[in-house]
Amino acid sequence: METPVAQRTELGRFVDRFHDDGYGIIRGAVPPAAVPELRSRLQRLLGPTPSGPGGPPPQRLLPRLVEHDPRFADLTISPRLVATLTEMFGTVPHLVCAYGHEKPPGTPAHTGPHSDVAHLPGVPHHLSLLMVKAMVALTPVATGGGATVVFPGTHQGGPPGQGQSVELEPGDMVIFHANIRHTATANTTTHPRLSLWFAYAQPWMRVFPGYEYSAAFLDTMAARLQAQPGLRAMFGVTDPYATRPI
Q1: Which positions ≥6 away from 6 have C-beta within 8 Å?
Q2: Three-class SS of residue 2?
Q3: What distance in Å separates the CA atoms of residue 79 and residue 95, rounded to the nearest whole number?
Q4: What is the Cα–Cα distance from 6 to 172, expressed in whole angstroms?
Q5: How many CB atoms lie within 10 A of CB 93?
Q6: Which of 8, 103, 136, 242 could bond 146 through an S-S bridge, CB–CB 3.0 to 4.6 Å?
Q7: Calpha distance 47→230 (Å, rounded)
Q8: If the chain, 246 residues long, is cut into consecutive pieces of 10 residues, what is the mean pLDDT of each piece?
Q9: What are the DSSP E strand ranges found in the chain?
């Protein structure tokens, strides 16, 4: 039996809207006081933005983000985020990719409208939730500043309609269904857009190539995962195919 709408928790209502629209925004997902240190750490790891005759690259990525600093790993398994994802998926998902991202100033869009999973055959993507992406803004994100544009409802096969520019303040997080049509936009400002990106998927999906967890990283997480066994699936250290009593 479905829970009556009036009895749904705030989290339940957020997830309901996510399933309807294909995306949702969590304001203040990262406390404002923590943002400057995370931003500085990402900038140090990325290093200076290179520039050639054609200007800076349209984007820069720092793969395997969680292995560079435990504060990044902590973000991916923060209690609020894990609770939200578990409500969305119906189970603890698998963190299959995490990277830091810079959209340099004065650069064009690096993608056009697309779905992240529509090219994968054999899955009715309009009826299922294979994967979501979560982005934490470390700098203000506004129209003209490299904001992601999403097309609500397209994750369920609806027509694109009017795109919505996802505007965020530092510390805000957007989570979107991997099948929603979305696009990058140009950063026409004089400041870089810095952000953290996490992809969460069904537990049986493998980690993206090049983002596999090192043995050393899993060793550093062992004590924590032993103390919080519910998080073991997040890093792929459980058997997603194990049978369980019904």
Answers
A1: none
A2: coil
A3: 14
A4: 27
A5: 22
A6: 103
A7: 36
A8: 59 96 97 96 95 87 97 96 97 97 95 95 94 98 96 95 96 98 97 97 96 96 92 92 68
A9: 23-26, 60-62, 94-103, 131-137, 149-150, 164-165, 173-177, 182-183, 193-201
